[in-house]
Specification:
mainly alpha; about 200 residues; 2 strands; two-stranded antiparallel ribbon; globular
């Protein structure tokens, strides 16, 4: 990592690093920090954060609709008890990246993937694949793009997904992406989705 990254991420000042370099005991730690890449550090620091809020033994929770962007369980009153497996299942009907991230934070990737696997036979291959890819992206955006190919630009703009727009933002500016969408005569609905994803990167 650069000194700037070390300072921002770990709150270690330049003077502290300088002192560590002179110390027999801490010089190895200073050397490690300088030679490890920022992506690896972020991944290691996020391991504990990925521990779900609810243990795998918890079967029911009180429904808090404010946690999610869509009211999937509209027939259930806010605050009513619901089975976790039913709550997870409901999001597979109309999956979106923001809520997928939230259910993983709440219940853990293993549990969410297990519920998805049980629905594989009753879901269309397209819906299953979309849910699966959203889960993989929520778990690790970097690993997702190591394993999945970015679709053609024209396809992305006509059928935008949060993960694809996030990736394009690493290549193009927001204005460039919007200009490309307008040049390709993207429909209003898709254009609004792109604008939403650009303003809310995951």
């Amino acid at each position: 990592m650069t000194m700037k990254e070390i300072k921002l991420l770990l709150n270690i000042s330049t003077s502290t690093m300088s002192d560590w370099n002179k110390s027999e005991k801490r010089s190895k730690l200073a050397k490690l920090l300088k030679n490890i890449d920022i992506d690896t550090v972020n991944m290691l620091l996020s391991i504990e954060d990925k521990k779900p809020k609810y243990s795998s033994k918890t079967q029911k929770i009180k429904l808090n609709k404010k946690l999610f962007t869509k009211d999937i369980l509209w027939a259930q009153e806010d605050g009513s008890e619901v089975y976790i497996k039913n709550l997870i299942s409901a999001f597979f009907n109309i999956p979106n990246q923001e809520d997928t991230i939230k259910i993983i934070q709440l219940f853990g990737e293993k549990r969410v993937l297990k519920v998805l696997d049980k629905h594989k036979l009753i879901m269309s291959p397209e819906d299953y694949q979309e849910s699966y890819e959203q889960i993989q992206y929520a778990i690790s955006p970097k690993e997702y793009f190591d394993n999945f190919t970015l679709p053609d630009l024209d396809l992305i703009l006509h059928n935008p997904k949060q993960r694809h727009i996030d990736k394009l933002q690493q290549i193009y500016t927001e204005d460039e992406l919007l200009d490309m969408a307008k040049d390709k005569h993207i429909g209003l609905s898709a254009l609004m989705q792109i604008k939403k994803f650009l303003s809310n990167p995951q």
